[in-house]
Amino acid sequence: MVFYFKARPEAGDYTIFMGIDKHENEELIKYGFPEDIWFHVDKMSSAHVYLRFNKGQTIDDISEGLLEDCAQLVKANSIQGNKMNNVDVVYTPWSNLKKTASMDVGQVGFHNSKMVRTVKVEKRINEIVNRLNRTKVERKPDLKAEREAVNAAEKAERKQQLREKKQREELERLEKERQAEIRSYKGLMVSENMTSNKQIAATSKSLQELEEDFM
């Protein structure tokens, strides 16, 4: 089961989601999207909360409001962290999550610690948590199928881009050949004209010489 929430409307149409338990978290880790941003209470047990961005957006595009929504939600879903003030929440792109065979279910590390950011949550803000909970929807998605659909769409897009690139290159090649033919034709015309003038001059000279010989 996955819980889905809607971020504050003024921040845009964004979905925040988390797994119901560590086994669901394992699936979310495995089948995340490149645009997903992962949140977790630092050094404490908590839910794995994700923010799904639009394609092309990165962690640098998180607004202050979106960051606050995600941080408040992950704090509220930490048994220990929910009771404490001044809690650190870490967040990083899904692609930076590292999973090895030796890790427990639901446990993750990072490929690059420099890509992990931290935000401090001073206290729980019930107004934010309650607003998010009012948008809560429970679903049991086929995460693998969703990821495979995204992979297929991305593959098709890459193929289309490659086809368009080849078409542009072919058009450019044909245009270069056409321009080369035009230049070659113009050069040929000039060369022929120059040759004809020489031939005329040579012929005239020969006739003059013949006349002199005749006289």
Task: Describe the protein's topology.
Layout: E1 2-6, E2 15-19, H1 22-30, E3 36-41, E4 49-52, H2 64-76, E5 87-93, E6 97-98, E7 109-110, E8 117-121, H3 126-134, E9 137-139, H4 143-214
Antiparallel strand pairs: 1-2, 1-9, 2-4, 3-4, 3-5, 5-8, 6-7
Give an overview in words.
By secondary structure, this protein is an alpha+beta fold. The chain has 4 helices and 9 strands. Strands 8-5-3-4-2-1-9 form a 7-stranded antiparallel beta sheet. It has a two-stranded antiparallel ribbon with strand order 6-7. The relative contact order is 0.12. The model has no long low-confidence stretch (mean pLDDT 88).
Number of strands: 9
Largest beta sheet: strand ordering: 8-5-3-4-2-1-9
Q: Give the CA-CA distance, first to last residue.
A: 118 Å
The biggest beta sheet is recorded as: 7 strands, antiparallel
| Overall mean pLDDT | 88
Which structural category do the helix and sheet elements fall into?
alpha+beta
Low-confidence stretches: none
Task: Name the helicity range.
Answer: 40-55%
Envelope shape: elongated
What is Rg?
35 Å
